[in-house]
Amino acid sequence: MANAVAEDGAVKxxxxxxxxRRRHLSLQQAMEAGIGPLRGRLRALLAARSPAMARLAxxxxxxEQVLAAREHSLLGAVPALLEKHFTRLREASLDGLNxxxxxxxxxxxAHQAGEWLHVFRKDMKNVLLAELDFxxxxxxxxxEALRMRQPECHE
Length: 155
Hints:
By secondary structure, the chain is mainly α. The chain has one domain (19-145). The chain is 89% helix and 0% strand. The chain contains five helices and no strands. The protein has helices at residues 2-13, 18-49, 51-76, 78-103, 106-147. Helix 1 crosses helix 5 and helix 3 runs antiparallel to helix 5 (106-147). The chain is elongated.
C-alpha cells in the first residue's frame, strides 16, 4: 500500500511536462556543446592530411553552416512534440484510471498510473538517442574519411 501511495505521488508530480522539457533541452545543449568541438578537431585532423582532405573539411564547414539553421529549427521543435505525446499518454491513463475506479479495482490503479510515465520516459530516451545518432552522422563521415588509406604519392 505504501508503495502504491509513493508511486501515485510520483505520477501526480509528473503531471507537469516542465521538468521533462528542461531535461530534454539541457541534453540537447550538451549534445551540441560536445559534438561541435569534436567535429572541429576531426576537421583539423583531416585538413592536416592532404589538400584533398582539407577540401573535404572545408566542405563540411560549409555544410554545417548551411544546414545549422534548419537543423536547429527542426530539433528545437522536438520538445513540443514530446509534450503532445506526454499529454496524450497522461490523458489516456486518466481515462483508464477513471474506468478502473468505476469498476472498483483500486489495486490496478497505481500500477496503471505509473505505466504511462514509464512509457513516456522510454519514448523520450529513444527520441534523444535518435537525435544523438542524427547529430553524429557528420562525425561518422569525418571519421570514415580519416580511416581511409592515403594513396601513395610518387613525386
